[in-house]
Amino acid sequence: MLAAHSGLAGNKRDATVTLGDQLKAPEQGRDAPLKRESPIFSESLLRAFVARLFMARGMGAPSAEAVARVLVWADSRGGETHGVSRTAHYFGMIDKGAMKPQAEPRLRVDFGALAAFDAEGAAGPVAMLKALGEAQTRARAHGIGLALVGGATHAGAMGCYAEAAAREGFAAIVIAAGPPLMAYHGARIPSVSTAPIAIAVPGGPEGVILLDMASSRISNGALKHAKRDGKPLPEGSALDAQGRETSDPAQAEVLLPVGGPKGAGFALMVECLTSLLAGMPILSRMLGEGKKGHGQNATIILIDIARLRPQQDFVADVDMLADIVKRLPRAEGAPELRLPGERGARLASQRQRDGVPVSAKTWAELVELATKYNVAVPETA
How far apart (Å, rounded) are the C-alpha atoms in residues 179 and 256? Predict the structure, then answer.
């Protein structure tokens, strides 16, 4: 079973160095020089450093470890926009009182296969991992488990939770709603959330097939990074303050949905299946008078495959389907046909071996936070 803060079930990376060992890193590393502009770390070392940062802001070790695991998971797969670059943003939420470092999610609905949590402002990964463990327990007992999370803060990449469940033998669907960042189709103001969704099943060449995407053309994290780095946006991905399409990140204010009305409609329904089911609306409160709301709500659905058929038979069918898809005739000039999540999984395997790079700008932010909160800075690889 997934423990409440276990994070990546079945993850054996850096097994020779535990996170507990790394959390006790010596203080003499605080003034370690930056040996390269974009340093590289083992996953365990990076997780431990980020966990120590959050402990310095008042989180207990289990909660800090949960946040660090989810953020580093994204970096290991090339998802820098949802990785440790989020640390400074999370610190900002703590400063504003939006994220409460010592909060513990409260189980408020306990009914058969259903569970619902009030996160009470806890860090998103803390609430999500607790709900994931609860959904798994209920799926084992009932064949399916559904856990709602309301009142949470940003929870990182939804794929982290779906992948962890798939590696435990579940088919997983994870959806999340948040504040309005994306225009509803035809509107020119932020109207719906980017509504990320992750779907994962065991099988395929990497052990899990994982779809992890937002309903916007680009994620809000990608927009922030484009603004930071001054990189142009893909055409049709954002509007400026006057509601005109723009590829200039400095002018971009509103994200656009993937597939136009399809992405917008999906995002609206995600709000219904998360926030409204949890009794914690986000969009109506933030778009209406007063414009008050909170960070994120989510729904986790797990199916115990073994209750429907032998799991090895299901995996064999997934493998067969994956093989057929990868051998389909390619269109002229098309590269290798990849399955959902295959690129990220390959990169994660490579970075398990070679280390996880951290961009120069993100590293500078982390060092600044470490200096401010008297946290040891690790030596780079």
Answer: 14
